[in-house]
Amino acid sequence: MPSPFDIEEIYPDEAPTPRLPRRQAGTSPQSVAVTLLADYTLRTRAPLPSAAIVELLAETGVTSAGARTAISRLARRGVLEGSRQGRNSFYRLSRAAAADLSAGGSWIVASTVDPQAWDGCWTVVAFSLPQDRGTQRRALRGQLRWLGFAPLYDGLWISPYELGEPARSRLAQLAPGAVTVFRGRQDALDVTGQRAPVDAWDIAAISAQYEEFLRRWTPLASRLESVDGPAAVRARTEVMDTYRRFPTLDPRLPLELLPPGWLRRPARDLFTAVYDGLAEPAQRHVRAVVARFADPVPPGIQAHTTADMLAGVREDACGAGLE
């Protein structure tokens, strides 16, 4: 599943092989740089002066040395493309990174919409890998997390939704001959202490994450008109950085399996209010910072909204065009 963060950020013992850089403990300069470029140049892949990127990262607390190191590493990994105009260096998202980020953004927004009615069936993935194949086991578990599965038991993972053919092929490639997939209804046993399938998810912990998100961002949502400049960019980056974990924590679990008053929709509405509400002042500030280092300012610095993300942000006529 395309995403600008690594599954290890949420589940440290499970790691797929992401195309984009994983975040370390705390705030990673590389992830902040990717988020900034995605939030304001994804549609056009506009090149920004490296000095402007360094300045924007400095406003989030990243040192100049840390920012330059992050840019260099992103370029080596193929996430950024570099160019020169005179004595100045410019960087933009690579086409592959932009495509991944566009798909990832659409996934983030779509995955937090309440699902359609559930048919009561479960998809079960069973696998058996020996302990000496730990890397393969972690890759498989990480891929299952991206697909919305959770472990009911160590080698038995479940999801309320069907597994599409591309996902089936991916699992088969990760563990050939060691995976079985089937779908059906739970056959309840008349015994005390039977583990329900939904117990594969820590519902209380997910609920606490939603509650913390609402506590953190509700006060800001009531005063968005007073947020401008660096504060608008920082808040918009941080709210995205936090919210984008929810599709993995709560993979559209059917509401009938969840406690009354589940906070998925309030969290999504709050994210939309903050992210979209700060788009204009944040865009204005990013353009002002770029103007200090480039004359004329590169065209195509434009914030996108959650509606754009849901549709899949694509390059417009100013860009090279994403396939």
Q: Span from first to last CA? A: 18 Å
Helix/strand-derived category reads: alpha+beta
The ordered H/E elements are HEHHEEHEHEEHEHHHHHH
Distinct helical segment count: 12
Beta-strand content bin: 5-15%
CATH first level of the domain at 122-184: Alpha Beta
User: How is the main sheet built?
Assistant: 4 strands, antiparallel
- pLDDT average, as an integer? 85
Cα shape: globular
Tally of extended strands?
A: 7
Helicity range of the residues?
40-55%
Write the layout of secondary structure elements.
Layout: H1 29-41, E1 48-49, H2 50-58, H3 64-76, E2 80-85, E3 88-93, H4 95-110, E4 122-127, H5 134-146, E5 150-153, E6 156-159, H6 165-174, E7 179-184, H7 203-221, H8 229-243, H9 246-249, H10 264-277, H11 279-291, H12 306-311
Antiparallel strand pairs: 1-3, 2-3, 4-6, 4-7, 5-6
Structural summary, described in words:
With 323 residues, the protein is of the alpha+beta class. The protein has a domain at 122-184: Alpha-Beta Plaits, CATH 3.30.70. It contains twelve helices and seven strands. It has helices at 29-41, 50-58, 64-76, 95-110, 134-146, 165-174, 203-221, 229-243, 246-249, 264-277, 279-291, 306-311, and strands at 48-49, 80-85, 88-93, 122-127, 150-153, 156-159, 179-184. The strands form two sheets. The protein has a four-stranded antiparallel beta sheet, with helices on one face. The chain has a three-stranded antiparallel beta sheet with strand order 1-3-2. α2 crosses α3 and α7 packs parallel to α10. The longest helix has 19 residues, at 203-221.
